[in-house]
Design a protein that fits this description.
This protein is mostly helical. It is built from three helices and no strands. The longest helix has 43 residues.
């Protein structure tokens, strides 16, 4: 009985171990979606110029392409390093969106 548990337990726990990686990819996707909404809101409210819009969208597209490539390369999962790297890039873009929208200028 102990021998069976020794083999069954790792198989039963395997899906649980992969959930954080799946959630991380999903969290990145939702963070990116929220940022795109902030960009669109800034354009609609006149806080982001067309040039700034294209610049921010290009950076967002670059992060999305990297996320898709990383997921494809790893069978649908992100490594902790890839997750951290993409999260760092998204945080930098988020700061830039904030700085652009709150610059005090209205176009």
């Amino acid at each position: 009985m102990i021998m069976k548990m020794r083999y069954i337990l790792p198989i039963a726990l395997a899906p649980i171990l992969f959930i954080p990686k799946i959630a991380s990819a999903s969290e990145l996707y939702h963070q990116q979606s929220a940022q795109e909404q902030r960009i669109f809101d800034g354009v609609r409210e006149g806080q982001i110029t067309p040039d700034e819009f294209h610049h921010l969208e290009k950076r967002e597209a670059s992060v999305n392409a990297q996320r898709v490539e990383d997921l494809r390369k790893n069978g649908g999962f992100l490594t902790p390093y890839e997750n951290q790297h993409l999260n760092h890039k998204l945080n930098k873009i988020s700061h830039e969106i904030h700085k652009t929208r709150d610059s005090g200028w209205s176009y």
